Amino acid sequence: MAKKKIVIVGGGYVGFEVAQALDELADVTLIEQREAFVMPPAAIRALVDPTLLDQITLPYDKLLKSGQVVRGRAVSVSQSSVTLDTGDAYPADFIVVATGSSYAAPFKPSGDSIAEFRQASADVSAQLAKARSVAIVGAGAVGTELAGEIAAAQPGKSITLISSDDRLFPMYPAKLGAQLKRKLEGVGVNVVLGQRAQDLRHMDQPYQGAVTLTDGTVIEADLIFPVIGSKPQSSLLQNVPGVTVGSSGRLKADAWLRPSDYPNLFIAGDLADVGDGMTIVATTRQNPWLIKTLKKVLAGQPVERQKPYSPWKKAPILIPLGPVIGNSWLFATVGNWITRTMKGKDLFIPKYRKAFGLTSERG
Ligand SMILES: Cc1cc2nc3c(=O)[nH]c(=O)nc-3n(C[C@H](O)[C@H](O)[C@H](O)COP(=O)(O)OP(=O)(O)OC[C@H]3O[C@@H](n4cnc5c(N)ncnc54)[C@H](O)[C@@H]3O)c2cc1C
């Protein structure tokens, strides 16, 4: 019997893993606009260690054994196919859309070119090396890690980390944010809390200039990094019948991660407003659910008979401040050793290189 066709749009943390897990069971097509997968967590450290760039962009050519990875941009989705901007259409019994999100440069590619992403990262890295002062606007995980990476690799710079919240990581027990603040201050970072930057000149790339805070303080810096969050990429599905865009720009979904009137269309990851954050940690819960559910559905069982998806109640989080120190919340606040061992040391680079069939450092 012919295998069912699954078309997956977006080869990020959701798409690559779901495609690989179903490769043997279904006729899988993964549609991805870029020639390589990029690891944003490691793109932070690449700014202070540009040699990492060679290790954190992973070509798709060894990902699937049976299925195909098609390089292209999907522009429309129907119940039975996905169409690219070239006009090529890929028939599907099931469709997974995981188009993710965009982020300010140089942390994720802004377009489909990996060469341009590498150049943007290298340019900012060169500016950073020369900068005497840095201001980071936004103290979520990216801003906090960036401050820690710069302080660890380039001590002596003036680094200011600015947050509009009154404490770091306000969604987590106070101990996590308090310990991270203390460690950042210990390596010389000036942590400014409860202040909003009023006049960011660019939201999408670093620049030299000044920002004015809510209390009127003006902070001048050789490099200002706007790191104020991910923007979901939902345009592909906005005209599909039944799709609802949530207030965050993410798409609503039913209990089986289906966003529309099409019963065979699923979403996950940063695109999906299903109660999880826009994190890889979220995909570590969503991907296994999606893979298990799709396996059952491929075997002919109705979707509605499967266990509904339930999001993380409070997702774990790992915040390295460079390769050695950091804090994490793994259902309790933990410190340097666990954070370093689990993430700070290698940023999961070997794990993803292995998944992409690249075992050696440069292989
Ligand atoms: C700097 C940074 C650091 C981060 N660090 C962490 C961390 O340490 N831990 C953590 O849990 N989370 C982290 N995150 C968040 C994490 O990167 C995202 O949650 C994750 O990438 C989401 O995965 P995804 O598969 O939903 O989307 P993405 O990874 O964004 O992948 C989407 C893919 O879809 C492709 N695509 C989009 N539209 C189309 C189209 N129309 N046609 C074809 N292809 C398309 C894109 O090219 C992209 O490859 C970080 C984010 C950033 C920016």
TrEMBL record:
Residues 70-274 form the FAD/NAD(P)-binding domain. Pfam families: Pyr_redox, Pyr_redox_2. Keywords: FAD, Flavoprotein, Oxidoreductase. Residues 5-43 form the Pyridine nucleotide-disulphide oxidoreductase N-terminal domain. Belongs to the FAD-dependent oxidoreductase family. PANTHER family: APOPTOSIS-INDUCING FACTOR 1, FERROPTOSIS SUPPRESSOR PROTEIN 1. This is Nitric oxide reductase FlRd-NAD(+) reductase. It comes from Falsiruegeria mediterranea M17. The lineage of its organism: Bacteria, Pseudomonadati, Pseudomonadota, Alphaproteobacteria, Rhodobacterales.
